[in-house]
């Protein structure tokens, strides 16, 4: 069974080469991570051209800062954190990130969480879920992506997005409910 140290050392030689500015190692590391990181960008940003642009800028940052990587975590976690941060920065700059939060409501943190929405497994495909996510508002999609796909908890999401933990939980609950409606064709 692999240990945490095994994951931290994944692509160690490539990273060391990148830290020495070896272009071949940079190309190879990029080749390993470009597609999954593009998918993160696409889930968060919705538009392929934005996803491509943000990913390219993030990889420039990654190679510029790779000498600060010290193998305390895995290289994939470190790259993913940079990618997610660049996506959030992009959304904030474009002022597309909205919380869909109704300030007139009482304290959301005290609300009972909604039960998980029922998804009909019939005709469920990865492509259908992806298309359904693209129909969500920016705020819903970003919180849902960060929580489900990227593995952040609500406290981390609140810190990343500059929102309260209660708002993150509310957004997540509403996003799940809306996605269930979309996937079950109850729009």
Automatic annotation (TrEMBL):
Keyword Transmembrane in record: no
Source superkingdom: Bacteria
Record carries keyword Chloroplast: no
InterPro entries: RNA_pol_sigma-70-like, RNA_pol_sigma-70_dom, RNA_pol_sigma70_r2, RNA_pol_sigma70_r4_t2, RNA_pol_sigma_r2, RNA_pol_sigma_r3/r4-like, WH-like_DNA-bd_sf
Domain RNA polymerase sigma factor 70 region 4 type, chain residue ranges per copy: 130-179
Domain RNA polymerase sigma-70 region: from-to ranges: 29-95
UniProt keyword annotations, A-Z: DNA-binding, Sigma factor, Transcription, Transcription regulation
Any one Pfam family match given in the protein's UniProt record, by short name: Sigma70_r4_2
Protein family according to the UniProt entry: Belongs to the sigma-70 factor family. ECF subfamily.
Protein name (Swiss-Prot/TrEMBL): RNA polymerase sigma-70 factor (ECF subfamily)
Species per Swiss-Prot/TrEMBL record: Neolewinella antarctica
């Amino acid at each position: 069974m692999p240990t945490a140290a095994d994951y931290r050392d994944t692509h160690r030689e490539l990273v060391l080469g990148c830290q020495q500015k070896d272009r071949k190692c940079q190309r190879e590391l990029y080749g390993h991570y470009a597609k999954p990181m593009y998918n993160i960008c696409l889930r968060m940003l919705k538009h392929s051209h934005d996803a491509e642009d943000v990913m390219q800028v993030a990889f420039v940052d990654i190679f510029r800062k790779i000498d600060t990587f010290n193998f305390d975590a895995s290289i994939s976690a470190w790259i993913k954190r940079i990618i997610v941060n660049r996506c959030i920065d992009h959304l904030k700059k474009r002022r597309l990130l909205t919380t869909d939060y109704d300030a007139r409501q009482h304290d959301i943190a005290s609300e009972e969480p909604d039960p998980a929405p029922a998804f009909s497994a019939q005709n469920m495909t990865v492509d259908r879920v992806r298309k359904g996510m693209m129909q969500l508002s920016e705020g819903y999609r970003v919180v849902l992506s960060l929580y489900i796909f990227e593995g952040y908890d609500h406290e981390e999401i609140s810190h990343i997005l500059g929102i309260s933990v209660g708002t993150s939980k509310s957004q997540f609950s509403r996003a799940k409910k809306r996605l269930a409606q979309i996937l079950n064709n109850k729009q």
